[in-house]
Amino acid sequence: MSYQLLKGKRGIITGALDEHSIAWKVAQKCHEEGATFTLTNAPIALRMGEIKKLAEQTGSTIIPADATLVDDLTKLYTESMDVMGGKIDFVLHSIGMSVNIRKNIPYTALNYDFYNKGIDISALSFHKMLATAHKLDALNEHASVVALSYIAAQRAYPFYTDMADIKAMLESIARTFGYHYGKSKKVRINTISQSPTKTSAGGGIKGFAEFYEFAQLQSPLGNASADDCANFCVAMFSDLTKMVTMQNLYHDGGYSTTGISQELIEKI
Ligand SMILES: NC(=O)c1ccc[n+]([C@@H]2O[C@H](COP(=O)([O-])OP(=O)(O)OC[C@H]3O[C@@H](n4cnc5c(N)ncnc54)[C@H](O)[C@@H]3O)[C@@H](O)[C@H]2O)c1
Fold first, then answer.
1. Rounded to two decimals, what is the model's pTM?
2. 210: domain CATH number?
3. Which residues pair with 188 in a beta bridge?
């Protein structure tokens, strides 16, 4: 059902790689809710071509941008404002990649070049997106910016290795930039801490299938799906949440505040 919660709003959605991506679902829901937006991803991801289907479905323009490059981000904002005819009301940062995870390197023996790359792609890119928007004055007052995070920012999850530290940094950027951008332009910035979700990034983590099942049994409501996450993003982009900022919001079916579930006790 559509409530037209985003009618008349203009957005930028990063990170839709294929139909499993959380950003893909967010784009579909934002379209249903009446928003117009541009889609962006790293040039290498765009060459895979899948995103064109999403652009056709949602009537969106694709603007390539490597989120680690300020020049690309500057072009992303200026072209987005050009194409859509005005300043931006919402931005989704849905970007994450760790070479250490991909290569199964344990936390105690991280490769620091890979670590730096992970920080640049998955956390600094958020600061760069915000700083570029700030410099260009590309966001409308009360615009809403959301980045996706994971509970390993607060608790130890051995398989999440360097991404745990990187997500902690991402959440800190949301708070600190949220203060500055809130003061200057009433822009709000939040992170959503999402359940494990079956996507390319999620599936790249060793032991993901087992952990997905564990979280499913631990959460009173079960794991939140990518579709559920997309609904939550729509709510965060809408005016109904206009006083929410600088928060890390758990979207996990109650996982983060459950000690242990009866189902897990019985299984063990
Ligand atoms: N899948 C999960 O279990 C889960 C749980 C919590 C949070 N998250 C977070 O959700 C976000 C989206 O991940 P996803 O699970 O949808 O996986 P995904 O692999 O579909 O999305 C990750 C995206 O990052 C993009 N990307 C990588 N390098 C980039 C760069 N230099 N510039 C621009 N884009 C780049 C990829 O092309 C891809 O589209 C990530 O931040 C991830 O950490 C995922």
1. 0.98
2. 3.40.50.720
3. 144
